[in-house]
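Regression report. Comparing outputs from two consecutive submissions.

Submission 1:
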Amino acid sequence: MDYVLIFQMIAAAVLAAAIYTVVGVAPGTDETATIAPVILVLVLSGLEPIIVLTFFISAIVACKLTDSIPVAVAGIPGGVMATPMVEHAVILKKFGLSDVSIRKMASGSVIGTLVAVPVSLLLANALIPIADVIKEYANPLFFIGAVFLALMCKNRWLALASIIPFALLIQGLRYLYWGVGAVPEGTNVFVSFFLGITIGPVILTLFELLNKEKRDSLERFDKKTIFINKTKQSKGFPNPFKILTKKELGMGALASLIGSITFIMSPVGITIFLGEIFSSRTKDPKKKAALAIACMEALTNATYIAGTLIPLIALGVPLSPMALGPASALFNAPPVFSLEHNMHHILSKGDFVWATIIGAAIAIGITFFITIRFSQQICAFVFRRIPHEAMLGLFFSLVILLSFMDAGWINVGGVLLIGLVAGILHRWGINYGVQFMVLYSAPWILSKIVG
């Protein structure tokens, strides 16, 4: 590895940390919707795979560090994974401890990263000897994964019932494209379908706004007033080991270890489950809330990193909700990557280690410092100056462009159709993990149905 490549990796990590420090603060942004399209564009641009991976690791760590800010200061989740922490953050806010909440969550993210990186690398290497066996059964494993994640949904029976119809929709569109000659027969239109699922809720909302009755029935709000209490700024580089208590450190590290090992499970589900278990015995409401958010933040970071690195290094197929979501383009981004030729086959073990260490270290060094020192100023700036709709509009336009590039105008309509269905399923409580698993297993499901 030469110095020029290392410099490019550092530059990519700095750029990712800068971008996603801001994106993470934006209320209601989803990690899949904001990271996946950008990573896909970088892969398709022909950028060196190791640079793309460095960018991705830095983006994930930075995004998870800053999505705690709007939760702490305004009770609004920055991302989907920050939602389980809202209740506990609001409790601390009522006691005037918003600054404590930010420090605890950011420090928990750092602990989760520090635990997940070595555990993921070790576990991935341990799985390499049996990787061929796992990959041989990849297609049925995707289906089993869809069933497993469906059982973890709130509306589990609805989620189970939707698997086969959704698979038929996806594979049916592919056969339609082959029949009309939009793409050569056998071409697997994947990227745009994946992005259609990713922004499904956005597509559904946009279509609903075209319905006059629905539009007129929507509740109108005046400008929202958000109060941000001023807090003392710390001096020097903050130390997460001093910010967290010994109990919070221990529980956070244990949660991160469990989250790394159970990387195939739903990050949201395991975060809520373990976070509540670890804090249940603490009676004092302030201590309980602080312990819960520290554990949850550590756990979410761990599941994100492990869910990417373990399948990527050991298998080369995306067998985790994280690998199927934000990290999907690292596994499958035709024509650059496929399940038979992706980063797993291109990068060496050393490349994975260096990309992970550089990306995570730079994101922690930049974003953790900024989060602790300037969280309130960043939050106020984003709330005032960066409309949520502008970000969603940018990602929506990227999806439409890539849909056209995949299979022409007919695919734009097909992706809108998939987005509508995916948005309805998401609104009904069927999470992205189930839908992405169905996307991967659709050809296998159809082959079993028709024999």
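Submission 2:
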Amino acid sequence: MAELAQAEFYSPGPPAASAAATTTGKSVQVWRALVSWLAILFRLLLQILRGTPSWAQLLSFVGLRPPLLFSPSNASSAYKPLAVDQPTDAASVNSGPALEPPNRLTVVLDLDETLVCAYEASSLPPTVRTQAIEAGLKCFDLECVSSEKDADGKPKVNHVTVFERPGLQEFLKRSSEFADLVLFTAGLEGYASPVTDKIDVDKKLTHRLYRPSTVSTEYREHVKDLTCVSKDLSRIVIVDNNPFSFLLQPSNGIPCVPFFAAQPCDEQLIGVILPLLKDLSQQKDVRPALYEKFHMPEWFAQQGFPTVNYTQ
């Protein structure tokens, strides 16, 4: 076994020949390295003659790579690519047709117990008038011509005290910015006209309708048919303390709380009605929204009146 082990590590040939071969191999490797460096220097010389090389190119010539200064791992999270320039007609291609704003809303307003409350001056207790004024209500006195005749056959003159609903002037001003306001009252013109002149000093009401413009039905008298104001029922509403006034168009009606002189803290006009009208002014058709809010057709049905579909 010892002989076999020695034989495995045995190098044939004499020792002197082996040393010479080793020396020759090293010399060849040195010359090869020298030639390689000379080739690199020669390439650098050519690059310098052509133009100044970058430091990255110099490193690449010697077999090294420069570190990446902007790799995905080093990129800033705030980095955003430059936007690609859009063609000049991109807006017309990408944007759809402009939506036309809806027509101005038409708001029909009742007078008595909606915008004002009026009393015959002779029947109004002085304490009620005093307390209402002290509470902040605005009021004024008027002489109104009645349709009745006195003993001499002359038109009777009535003396009335009128109280404005709180916020009335602000309500007329702000609602007229987005709606056409129409007065529609079941009162006679001899009374309603001077009252309206007094409260509408800035002429915010575009039109006035009095009792002769109302209609009588088999169920109620003095019903206010909105088609005499506008044929487009999708953009008209009526505000009235008496819901029977809009019996013919129940889903266009906004029933409000009646107003009396004993209610100096009433907030219906500014706090309730004005915001609702503002929202309705943005609706293409006011009837679905009013139907969902008040369900007036069902209310009329409960009162024994026929149900009217708001889509008609």
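Expected: both submissions complete independently.
Actual: both completed, but the second showed a warning that disappeared on reload.
Relevant detail on submission 2: The mean pLDDT is 78.
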